[in-house]
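Ticket #4471: structure output looks truncated?

Reporter: J.K.
Steps to reproduce: submitted the chain below (97 residues) through the standard prediction queue, then opened the result file.
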Amino acid sequence: MVMPNIKSAEKRVKVSEKKRVVNKAYKTSMKNKTKAVLLAINENKTVEEVQQLFIKAQSAIDKAARRGAIHKNQASRRKSRLAAKVKAYIAAKEQGV
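Returned output as attached by the reporter:
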């Protein structure tokens, strides 16, 4: 890795690397929890189980946005799309499909 010559630029490299690692952890957690909801829907789990996983996924998405790992509009979009899938699944379950 090439280190800059200027002291402030050296610090920026260190700080941005630390932030990148932390942001990656938040994003990974968010994605894994979202995938868990989608997997539960595909595996035809109970409505209660899907709802519990959805709440955890929403929380992880909000946390990533609050920490600045993702933009608040991206968080809103992800939650909205996930909520639509959960709502459709619940509606299908209630109709006995």
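Triage note (M.O.): checked the attachment and the full token line is present. The chain has one domain: 21-94.
Status: closed, working as intended.
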